Amino acid sequence: MTLHPAVAAVRRGVRRELAGLEPGDAVVVGCSGGADSLALLAATVFEGHKLALRVVGATVDHGLQDRSADRAARVVEQMAALGVDETVTATVRVEGGGLGPEAAARQARYAVLDQVAERFDASLVLLGHTRDDQAETVLLGLTRGSGGRSLAGMRRGFDRYRRPLLDVGRAETVTACEVEGIEFWTDPHNADPAYTRARVRQRVLPVLEAELGPGVAETLARTADQLRRDMEALDRMADAAYADLDDAGGLPLDRLRALDPAISSRVLRLAAVRAGAVASETFHVHVEALSGLVSGDVAGQVRLPGNLTAVVDDGRLRFRPTAVES
């Protein structure tokens, strides 16, 4: 029997990430019950068990929708039916803490996956983001003025996390589930125009495809890949510069000013995030404001996402918690 191309594409992406693991190693798969994550989970069970790996399915109930606990229980049933070795479900309370709802939910989800990975001593945590997710991320980043960082999109991997499906379209994961007889859930939030990403998915990308021709998502994703290496090289240079500048007293302004702008902007963003700014919400406008502080073009202070404020004091750039207004 010939393997369907959609199933083959998903398995190929997973197989590439599992290569090099040893028998008995654990792999965690984050599963929401949608087509992307269920196709990923099914492929991981198939490929992982051939390598004698231990596959753990994990789902997170964010409590943001009616009957979300029932939905999580159903996902656990599906994960078990697909043949995982262990299932984990966790309920989290999503609190803003200065974040938007999507960012807060994402932060809570990663916290759970980190805990699951530690519990099972997992070598990898697999996420079900697809090529379409990558294209949406690039477009969202462009609208926020994030420059090259937005064009580089989501990383294929970081720490123990991997995204095996960035070369696979969302339609392929749907087809893979249908071919394998896997029922999947369609999250109503994905079509809710109250969410920016949903508007990009439902309105913006279809218009681009209609006006510019098919393949826009593939082109955007390919552009992200092409720029990723350049961005990572610059980030490594910025990491080295930051390590050389940072001390308990803050970052010296004279040495910051001596850096190439491509490096200094990254150093400033890195310093802000290390001090407690929310990485996913620290955009170009924030970095430009920090650059203004360093150059002297901006007076006073700069407030950053995550209840953090940057100030200039005694020839240094310093970060401190934002004062609570009474």
Keywords:
326 residues, alpha/beta, Rossmann fold, 2 domains, 12 helices, 10 strands
Structural topology:
Elements: H1 5-18, E1 26-30, H2 35-50, E2 54-61, H3 68-81, E3 86-91, H4 101-120, E4 122-126, H5 131-143, H6 148-151, E5 157-158, E6 161-162, H7 170-179, H8 196-212, H9 216-245, E7 251-252, H10 253-257, H11 261-275, H12 284-295, E8 301-304, E9 308-313, E10 316-321
Parallel strand pairs: 1-2, 1-4, 2-3, 4-6
Antiparallel strand pairs: 5-6, 7-10, 8-9, 9-10
Quick rundown:
The protein has 326 residues and is α/β, with parallel strands linked by helices.
Characterize the structure shown.
With 326 residues, the chain is α/β, with parallel strands linked by helices. It folds into 2 domains: 208 residues, HUPs (Rossmann fold, 3-Layer(aba) Sandwich); 76 residues, no CATH class. Helix content is 52%, strand content 14%. The protein has 12 helices and 10 strands. The strands form 2 sheets. Strands 3-2-1-4-6-5 form a 6-stranded mixed sheet, sandwiched between helices. Strand 8 and strand 9 form a beta hairpin. Helix 1 crosses helix 2, helix 5 packs across helix 8 and helix 11 packs across helix 12. The chain is globular, with a radius of gyration of 22 Å. The protein starts with a helix and ends in a 5-residue tail after the last strand. The model has no long low-confidence stretch (mean pLDDT 89).
